[in-house]
Amino acid sequence: MDVIFRTRTRRWRSGVREQRMRQVLLNLLSNAVSASPPDAASRFDPSFSWMSGRITVDDEGPGLDAEQRSRVFERFVRFNHAGSDDKGSGLGLAICRSIVQLHRGRIFAAPGENGRGLQMVIEISLRNFFQRAQDSVRSFQPGEFLPYQFGVSGE
After folding, report:
1. What pTM, to 2 d.p., does this model score?
2. Which DSSP helix (H) or strand (E) runs through 54?
3. Contact 62, 81 (CB under 8 A)
4. What is the Cα–Cα distance from 87 to 24, expressed in whole angstroms?
5. Phi and psi at residue 94, to the nearest 5°
6. Under CATH, what is the fold of the domain 2-80+90-139?
7. N or C: which end of the chain has fewer CB within 10 A?
8. Helix, strand, coil percentages for the chain (3-state, nearest 5)
9. Which DSSP string do the residues of 63-97 spell out, in sequence order?
10. 154 vs 15, 22, 42, 54, CA distance in Å?
């Protein structure tokens, strides 16, 4: 997904690439569904503010302890719980971390709400993007028409 700001003469992008972020979200959602019991809910909660985006994915599985949460994004690290038939390679979350970092964001694991399950959190700052837009706006002369359009594009 590209977040785009346009003026009559300039265009800026946030640099968020839809295909890569879709890969991250699908991996997190797939992991949440796999970790949760059959009748449990997995939650996806995106929220965006002026300067940042935050996405959480929660499951109702057994969760991970603090040491496991600190290692879960390392390559080839897997934590299978009893009864799990997961056949993953342990690369999915390491790839997710790389993609999020390329977007100048961070991803981390936290205890699930109410002490149940696991919460995966992605935070991406839009501060640099908005600073560039603000600096460019300052270069316009007083009285000059400067219409902004905010849009989300799948380019």
Report:
1. 0.71
2. strand 52-58
3. yes
4. 18
5. -65, -40
6. Heat Shock Protein 90 (3.30.565)
7. C
8. 30, 25, 40
9. ---HHHHHHTTSTT---PPTT------S-HHHHHH
10. 12, 11, 26, 19
State the angle between helix axes of 92-102 and 18-35 in degrees (0 to 180), rounded to the nearest 10.
Answer: 140
- Residue tagged 């003026």 (tokens): 7
Q: Are 108 and 57 in contact (CB under 8 A)?
A: no
In degrees and rounded to multiples of 5, residue 145 shows phi and psi of -75, 130
AA letter at 1: M
Per-residue pLDDT of the chain (155 residues; tens, 9 = 90+): 333 444 444 444 445 667 888 899 999 999 998 888 888 888 988 887 777 889 999 999 999 999 999 999 999 998 876 556 667 788 999 999 999 998 889 999 999 988 889 999 999 887 765 555 555 555 545 544 444 444 444 44
Q: Which residue has the tokens 């890969």?
A: 23
Amino acid in the structure at residue 34: S
The two tokens of residue 42 are: 């997995």
